[in-house]
Specification:
By secondary structure, the protein is mainly beta. The protein has helices at 37-74, 221-224, 237-240, 343-346; strands at residues 77-78, 83-84, 88-95, 100-105, 111-115, 124-129, 137-138, 144-147, 158-163, 170-174, 180-183, 189-194, 205-207, 213-219, 245-251, 261-262, 286-292, 295-300, 304-308, 314-319, 329-332, 338-341, 349-352, 358-363, 368-373, 379-383, 388-394. The chain has a single domain (81-394), classed as 7 Propeller (Methylamine Dehydrogenase, Chain H). The protein is 13% helix and 34% strand. Residues 1-45 and 67-75 have low confidence and may be disordered.
Length: 398
């Protein structure tokens, strides 16, 4: 198929024919006109009318193809390269968005996208995209909020996102950093938690049903060296003989306590008692969290999925296929199922049914990042490497 907008050139083959004429004196021609002028003129006129008709037909065909091209462009595009399970379909709903890594839905139904920009010269870029019009949306034409790097020496990028559906506030966590911020509707960025040892990206932060902030950390002598306020060498024995393993914190940032809260001074909700377990290896760190009713669902670095109840007891839900899980993301389905995006090493999205069965929803994704579900159960995926957002929905859905 030719490219739209390219002019079509048409040429008709002209065959020359000759015949022998009887020798006779040439007829007298009117002055100023050469011999054969009338015949050549009539032939040229016929050729001109033919060429004109050809051009009109070519232009009409061009308009038709342009119209078909516009219709194809205005409808969601199938996502090349992404494979989905039987019964699902995948389509591109946003293009031209530089390195999207996290997604959320606000109370107005807009898709909130956290990205890191084309050049990486800012801590974050935020988009709010309306998907109720023609798709896919070209994010290059959409407005965005740019969060510059801090003026202090430490310059961190944001790699995790949580949205408070009650207020519209956004919570942003530093990737491989120590702080969590809140971006209010007044566009002011304020720190709400500091002093973490090592905050990962992905679903390392979340909000529970009461709007309380949940975040993950890890305790060990090595991780303590990454903290903002490490202990002096004379007190390093406190970390060497203390608890080693994952920590889960939950904070109500609206309870009236001064902000930011010091994570290094807060008691975690897991474990309840930070005592070393003699003869046992430390647990793998938790790298993802999402809320499910009164419970929290946690993902470990080796693909183990747990439920953490109000009694602070961990219960194994499922084990994902072996692999290197990094910058993972989690979301809860409408039926209580758990969706896990395995990150850019795994490149797959898994679904864990309420009974604990694991299935693959999509594979061969281009550095998949954040995932979020809408009110109808469609799953949105940020493909960081391909600068686009996918929507995965049941095949029968319009």
């Amino acid at each position: 198929m030719r490219a739209l907008g390219k002019r079509v050139s048409s040429s008709m083959p002209i065959h020359a024919s000759t015949r022998r004429l009887p020798a006779r004196a040439p007829a007298r021609q009117p002055r100023g006109r050469p011999a054969g002028y009338a015949e050549a003129s009539r032939g040229f006129s016929r050729l001109s009318r033919l060429t004109c008709r050809t051009r009109i037909a070519a232009r009409s065909a061009g308009f038709i193809l342009a119209g078909l091209g516009w219709l194809l462009y205005a409808s969601p595009r199938p996502a090349a390269g992404a494979d989905v399970s039987e019964g699902f379909r995948v389509e591109v709903v946003v293009t031209g968005i530089p390195r999207p890594i996290q997604l959320a839905h606000d109370r107005d139904g807009m898709l909130v996208v956290l990205g890191q920009g084309w050049r990486g010269d800012a801590a974050a870029e935020l988009y709010r995209i309306d998907l109720r019009g023609s798709l896919p949306v070209d994010a290059a034409q959409a407005p965005r909020i740019v969060i510059p790097f801090a003026s202090e020496p430490r310059k961190s990028v944001f790699g995790s996102l949580a949205l408070d559906s009650r207020t519209g506030d956004l919570y942003l966590g530093e990737e491989n950093g120590n702080r969590i911020y809140r971006l209010g509707t007044d566009q002011h960025l304020r720190a709400v938690a500091v002093g973490l040892n090592h905050l990962l990206g992905g679903s390392a932060i979340a909000l529970d049903q009461q709007g309380r902030l949940v975040f993950l950390d890890y305790a060990s002598p090595e991780m303590h060296l990454r903290s903002e306020t490490p202990l002096p060498p004379s007190l390093s024995w406190l970390t060497e003989e203390g608890y080693r393993g994952p920590e889960v914190f939950r904070v109500d940032v609206d309870e009236g306590q001064p902000l930011p809260r010091r994570a290094d001074l807060l008691p975690p909700i897991f474990p309840r008692r930070e005592t070393p377990r003699a003869g046992q290896e430390p647990m793998w760190r938790f790298i993802g969290v999402t809320a499910s009713g009164d419970d929290l669902v946690l993902l470990s670095a080796v693909g183990e999925v747990f439920r953490l109840g109000p009694d602070a007891e961990l219960r194994l839900v499922a084990r994902l296929p072996a692999g290197h899980y990094h910058r993972t993301n989690m979301a809860m389905g409408l039926d209580g199922s758990i969706f896990v995006c395995g990150g850019f090493q795994i490149r797959r999205i898994f679904r864990i049914s309420p009974s604990g069965e694991v299935s693959t929803v999509a594979s061969e994704l281009g550095d998949p990042g954040g995932i979020v579900l809408d009110r109808e159960g469609a799953l949105y995926v940020a493909e960081t490497a391909l600068h686009r957002i996918l929507r995965i929905s049941p095949a029968g859905r319009r």
